[in-house]
Amino acid sequence: MRSKALIFSVTFMIMCGGFFSEAGAREEDKYCKDEMRKAAVSSVDFKERLLRKIYFLLANSEEIGLTKEQVSRVKDAKFRLKKSLLLTEAEIEIATLDIQAKLAEEAIDLGTVNSLIDKKYKLKATKEKILIEVLADLKNILTLE
Prior knowledge:
The chain has helices spanning 2-42, 46-59, 61-64, 68-104, 110-141. By secondary structure, the protein is mainly α.
């Protein structure tokens, strides 16, 4: 009789243990999905968000009530932004390749590598300044009128 009770209790624990572990796994999976969604939203960088705003403004210019002058100024800001970003991102890529080439040499010249690193991050700062400048221009273009 004791052996039957022991077998029954062990079987019951195994069955319930699987149920509770599955519930915990579902809860953990939900948490992971929430974190992944948050990461996906925040991974859209400032450049992409600004370009989406510009696209939204141009696509909905009539509904927003933008004048033709405002639409042309937004288009000019968009083209100026894209052109500046292309040039700056190309220079950043060139600086990155130069750094990699210097690091691949047998004797590393620290002065040259440090100056290339400084150049690269000055270019990245310039890129961010361009984005902020265009955002400020858009805010000046879009008045409350």
